[in-house]
Amino acid sequence: MRGLPVRKAGGIVAIIAGVFGVLAALTTLLVGGLGAAFEAEGAGVIIGLGWGGMVFSFAAIVLGAVSINAKSRVPGILLIVSSILGTILGGTLVAIFMVLALVGGILATVGVKDVSVEQPEAQ
Fold first, then answer.
1. Longest dimension (CA), the chain
2. Domain of 49?
3. Number of C-beta neighbours around residue 96 at 10 A
């Protein structure tokens, strides 16, 4: 029962980080769109970073929701990988919230008991 609150907290933290990451990605897309409208140099890169942030922020939302009731560590590990990729490919604003998603992924991974190893009952 000890792992249940930690796993749920990790999932909730990841969902919150994903929602704020989507808002940050929209802001990045807005700035990139304004740059493209004024024909600024490198605006296409900013737009690409915005779309990368959008993809990985949605992945953080989905994996955070899945990890709340997960019986294995796989959703937590995928959440960690997604948050690291979102930090690299999402731009500065998204990276701030992907660090929060990384913390949620770590909590979701640590909070799951390993069901493959049977522990002897104490008498």
1. 74
2. 11-110
3. 15
Please give the C-alpha separations between residue 90 and each of 38, 45, 67, 78, 85, in angstroms, as whole numbers: 22, 11, 22, 17, 8
Query: What's the confidence (pLDDT) of residue 63?
Result: 96
Cβ–Cβ contacts within 10 Å for residue 117, how many?
Answer: 6
- How many angstroms separate the CA atoms of 28 and 105, rounded? 24
| Residue 118 lies inside a defined structural domain of this protein | no
* Distance of alpha carbon 10 from alpha carbon 39, whole angstroms: 42
Flag the least confident range among 10-24, 36-50, 75-89, 105-119: 105-119
- pTM for the model stands at 0.86
With the C-alpha atoms ordered 84, 85, 91, 93, is the resulting torsion angle positive or negative?
negative
